From TrEMBL:
Molecular function via GO: O-methyltransferase activity; protein dimerization activity
Active site location: 291
PANTHER family: HYPOTHETICAL O-METHYLTRANSFERASE (EUROFUNG)-RELATED (PTHR43712:SF1), PUTATIVE (AFU_ORTHOLOGUE AFUA_4G14580)-RELATED (PTHR43712)
Protein name, UniProt field: O-methyltransferase
Organism expressing this protein natively: Cladonia borealis
Length: 383
């Protein structure tokens, strides 16, 4: 058994993302194949408890302390350092060890493992917290909402699963950005979202297409660019491409972007449901924007861009392009997540073509850039 485990670990270490995912899927299927019915029930019904205990551990900084301690951490020392009731901490630690989040190395003694280290980065923690606090109420509401609305794919932006789950009538991004700490957490999480994946900037032919572009004209407008991680990556990849580089989003992320983007990036608070102020740019770049919107609202966003596009302008949709069959778990989670949060969806190439066509645009090319993630650039021009 030991040598089998070592062999599998070695294989995983040298595998590509796709190879590693295949391995993980194989283990998942193996696990399910040996579960008894009670195992399946226990696993399912405690998913939320596991999440709640890990969320609590993050609040307490418990995993950080265990990670940073040179030697295994003792229950009573941890209780004193973190000012937590030792009985409560004992119960939390024992459950975390039983889940494999930490290792129990002796009585009352705990050490970090790969899981503990996977939860080290602030942006990963931000994602976990954001999903627990803001997305889970929507997931909890999903079955009731779908039953009450007659099992149709939701389309309401103001009375969707998210609104009912979070007891709000605000649209999702107003709800998120209306609370500074939720907004900051979401913006940080966006850095981790797809953080390990290849970016499109090294693959899409930006330099070739924008040869001779005048320095005074807008080159790259990151529409709904959040706090600027992609704009910053674009500038890093192409420090010498001539032309203005502009980041647009709602006021809060644009303010946060001050610390992220270089000084020569123009930061403009702009609502993409209003007329686009930057005319005739080479690229209007929208990453993970339209997957947040229904077809109807996506067409409105695109039409505002179509109205200001010049002959050489291109809209770049940096999005998932779902394959026609055997879609992976991560992509389908994204699709149903978009349904729960925004009554929106991930789309196939056929669905993209129909959508952009309704806004007076056509697809020029699709450049897939991250194997295994279904990520591509859908480049659109005026019809
Ligand atoms: C899923 S995030 C993607 C952010 C960024 N493009 C990225 O890839 O990291 C969607 C972004 O759209 C922004 N947004 C939502 N509604 C908007 C609106 N009406 N006008 C401009 N930006 C908006 C949000 O603030 C958020 O930053």
């Amino acid at each position: 058994m030991e040598s089998l485990i070592t062999k599998i670990q070695q294989e995983a270490a040298s595998a590509t993302y796709v190879g590693r995912k295949k391995l993980l899927d194989t283990f998942r299927d193996l696990q399910y194949s040996i579960e008894a019915p009670e195992d399946t029930m226990q696993r399912l019904m405690h998913l939320n408890l596991q999440f709640a205990v890990i969320r609590t551990a993050l609040d307490l900084n418990l995993l950080s302390v265990i990670r940073e301690n040179k030697a295994p951490s003792n229950l009573h020392d941890l209780a004193a350092t973190l000012s937590v009731d030792p009985l409560l901490l004992d119960r939390l630690l024992r459950y975390l060890a039983a889940l494999g989040v930490i290792n129990e190395v002796g009585k009352d003694s705990y050490a970090p493992n790969a899981y503990t280290f996977n939860l080290a980065k602030p942006e990963i923690q931000a994602g976990v917290k954001f999903y627990f606090d803001t997305c889970n109420p929507a997931f909890q509401e999903m079955p009731r909402y779908l039953s009450q609305t007659g099992y149709k794919s939701p389309t309401s932006f103001t009375d969707g699963i998210f609104q009912r789950g979070n007891k709000t009538d605000l649209i999702t991004f107003d709800f998120i950005h209306g609370d500074p700490s939720r907004s900051a957490g979401f913006n940080l999480f966006m850095k981790a979202q797809r953080g390990s994946q290849t970016k499109c900037f090294g693959i899409y032919p930006f330099e070739e297409e924008s040869k001779g572009w005048p320095a005074e004209k807008p080159l790259f407008v990151d529409v709904g660019g959040g706090s600027g991680h992609q704009t910053a990556a674009f500038k890093e990849q192409f420090p010498n491409l001539p032309g203005r580089v502009i980041l647009q989003d709602l006021p809060e992320p644009v303010e946060d972007a001050k610390a992220v983007v270089p000084e020569d990036v123009e930061r403009i608070a702009h609502d993409f449901f209003k007329p686009q102020p930057i005319k005739g740019a080479k690229y209007y770049y929208l990453r993970m924007i339209l997957h947040d919107h229904t077809d109807e609202n996506s067409v409105k966003i695109l039409q505002h861009l179509a109205l200001v596009m010049g002959k050489e302008s291109v809209i770049l949709l940096d999005e998932m392009v779902l394959p026609p069959e055997h879609v992976d778990e991560v992509s389908m989670q994204a699709d149903l997540g978009m349904m729960a949060f925004h009554s929106a969806m991930e789309r196939s190439e056929e669905q993209w073509a129909k959508l952009v066509g309704a806004a007076g645009l056509k697809i020029n090319k699709v450049v897939m850039y991250a194997e295994g993630f279904n990520l591509g650039i859908v480049a659109c021009v005026l019809k």
